[in-house]
Amino acid sequence: MYVPTRYFPVVLLSLIGFYYLLNISREEREYLHALRDRLSCPESHVIIDLDSSHAALTKNVTQPRKANAAFVILARNQDLSGVLDSIQQNEDRFNKKFGYPYVFLNDEPFEPDFIKYTSEVISTTAEYGVIPHDHWHQPKWINEDRATAGRQKLEAQDVMYAESVPYRNMCRFNSGFFFRHELLKKYDYYWRIEPDIKFFCDLDFDPFLFMQDNKKVYAFTIALHEYVETIETLWNTTKEFIQKYPQHIPKGNALRFLSEDGGATYNGCHFWSNFEIADLNFWRSPAYMAYFEYLDQAGGFYYERWGDAPVHSIGAALLARPDQIHFFNEIGYRHSPWTHCPPGETHKKGKCSCDPKDNFDRIDWSCLKDFEASFA
Ligand SMILES: Nc1nc2c(ncn2[C@@H]2O[C@H](COP(=O)(O)OP(=O)(O)OP(=O)(O)O)[C@@H](O)[C@H]2O)c(=O)[nH]1
Ligand SMILES: *[C@@H]1O[C@H](CO)[C@@H](O)[C@H](O)[C@H]1NC(C)=O
Ligand SMILES: *[C@@H]1O[C@H](CO)[C@@H](O)[C@H](O)[C@H]1NC(C)=O
Ligand SMILES: [Mg+2]
């Protein structure tokens, strides 16, 4: 329900009175005060909807432990219907019980309708941010003739998004900038959601707390082989980085996920980054920042079409141990054209609305076996 802002203080004060009667904890009281302060001085990019604050507060009474985490959705204004579809499922299957906030990011300002309709579906709070110019656009030091030639070469090979500069901006932004955005600075963990995805199962546990309690830095549902045309020099550039910065590469990393010959060649395996739950501080670490900077200077985001999926995956497998990376079998998920549908008991427990035979895990193109091999 979209409630005019002027009613917020009134309803909130009565809510606060109600919770005082219930003899709430100090933290909950502090949270209510903070919420009230924000409402009496609303920022333009902050929307707090009434139903939602109620849901979050009710929830907090029964679910006192939470991670410092948010959903992150990069989208254009025209992605609205696909975004609504994704967040409705996220709310129904998970977030109505767990109450995490959302951060929406865009290279242009979100239109009022985008904010209005998404905040109607969301049971908690959402912030809507614009991406700084230099975090999105092709850097000045990229040679445009070489970039044009690179796009034409991929177009001739019929590669998806071969000709698109915005797609490349998006891949570079997701690889190296989103976790540094002003609106994400306050969070430790994020869950990336894209438009038009499916969540098939109820979740009765909190994946963010799982990450935190088990010291995981990166989690996925689908791992697969990349089209190598888009990353022709990515592995060579990565090997140069390893040689120049050995201090950043920990012993016992998950290299086996990426390579079957000790790092000589890249097998193309990557985690499918349209879904990810991960530790923002891992991306912000000196090691990953150095890796991203090295790739960015090499220019492959524009001269080729390096995707954020192989970049994140190589970053995670090179700079973390296998036990810091997690496969969320319980999360039934689809991003066209692939599905992870949990089999057996896990399917039943989650009341999953997918056919368990429709499962990417054990087909040839899947890299789940390479992930498992990285533990050996
Ligand atoms: N703001 C903004 N978001 C974008 C732009 N291009 C892509 N995105 C978002 O970035 C994410 C990835 O883009 P997609 O178009 O889904 O790319 P993909 O997943 O590789 O390919 P398909 O989903 O198969 O089209 C999605 O969340 C998009 O909404 C853009 O130019 N501007
Ligand atoms: C819920 O409780 C936790 C821990 O007591 C607190 O940090 C948080 O701010 C509260 N509110 C929400 C909506 O998370
Ligand atoms: C990668 O580097 C090796 C050794 O320097 C070279 O032989 C090979 O051609 C390079 N591959 C690409 C795709 O540039
Ligand atoms: Mg997509």
From TrEMBL:
Transmembrane segments: 6-22
GO terms assigned for molecular function: alpha-1,2-mannosyltransferase activity
Keywords from the UniProt entry: Membrane, Transferase, Transmembrane, Transmembrane helix
Active site location: E276
A matching Pfam family: Glyco_transf_15
Source taxon at top rank: Eukaryota
Gene Ontology cellular-component terms listed: Golgi apparatus; membrane
The UniProt record lists the keyword Transmembrane: yes
Coiled coil: none
GO BP, sorted A to Z: cell wall mannoprotein biosynthetic process; protein N-linked glycosylation
Alphabetized InterPro entries for the sequence: Glyco_trans_15, Nucleotide-diphossugar_trans
Similarity comment: Belongs to the glycosyltransferase 15 family.
Protein name, entry field: Glycosyltransferase family 15 protein
Organism of origin: Tulasnella calospora MUT 4182
